[in-house]
Amino acid sequence: METPPVRRLEYALADFAERYAALARAREQIRAVSVTACSRDDVVEVTVGADGRPASIRFIDERFRQMPAAQLGDSVLEALSTARAEVAARFSATMSGPGLPVQATRETGVPRPQGPLWGRRTASSPTLLPPDLQAAVAALTDSVCDAVRWD
Questions:
Q1: Where along the chain do its domains lie?
Q2: Is the dihedral of CA 44, 49, 54, 57 positive or negative?
Q3: pLDDT of residue 144
Q4: What CATH class is the domain 33-114?
Q5: Among 66, 65, 61, CA closest to 44
Q6: How far apart, in Å, are the Cα atoms of 110 and each of 64, 88, 95?
Q7: pLDDT of residue 137 exceeding 50
Q8: Per UniProt, which keywords does this protein have (predicted)?
């Protein structure tokens, strides 16, 4: 027996609501990320936020004063790169939770969630809904995408 269109819409909307809630939780977890990393020579400590921007740079002791500028710069960049890599790893771990598959974009290597909750649906998007319900789900998806900002 085939499921009535209204029931299919209810199932689709319930699935959509679950995915939206998972995305909202992931978004809050990602916004709270802060990573501190140290250079291998233990001279520099860098803290970055979820966006990968440095929040603080700290020289651990006075050894930095005797270092050539290029070496000190390398230490800062190393700590910064390590912290950013950890942020990316945490992002991937968070976004690979249930209902939130992740795939790195080819251009940047930065993980981006895939699927119907990331961006607007196109006419070629695969769907299990009958044509008469596709417009309603697409409109709901667009409304949610307008409401959610990943600044």
A1: 1-32+117-146, 33-114
A2: negative
A3: 64
A4: alpha beta
A5: 61
A6: 32, 7, 12
A7: yes
A8: Plasmid
Per DSSP, the residues of 102-127 read EEE-TTT--EEE-STTSS---TTS--
Residue 35 burial class via C-beta count within 10 angstroms: exposed 0-12, middle 13-18, buried 19 and up: buried
State the Cα–Cα distance between residues 31 and 51, nearest whole angstrom: 8
Phi-psi region of 109 (alpha: psi -120 to 50; beta: other; left: phi over 0): left
User: 115 exposed, middle or buried (CB, 10 Å; 0-12, 13-18, 19+)?
Assistant: middle
107 to 34, 71, 77, 104, 150: CA distances (angstroms): 25, 30, 22, 9, 19
**Helix residue ranges, H only, 5-151:** 5-31, 69-95, 131-147
How far are the Cα atoms of 42, 43, 62, 64, 99 from residue 67, in angstroms, in the given order?
13, 10, 10, 5, 49
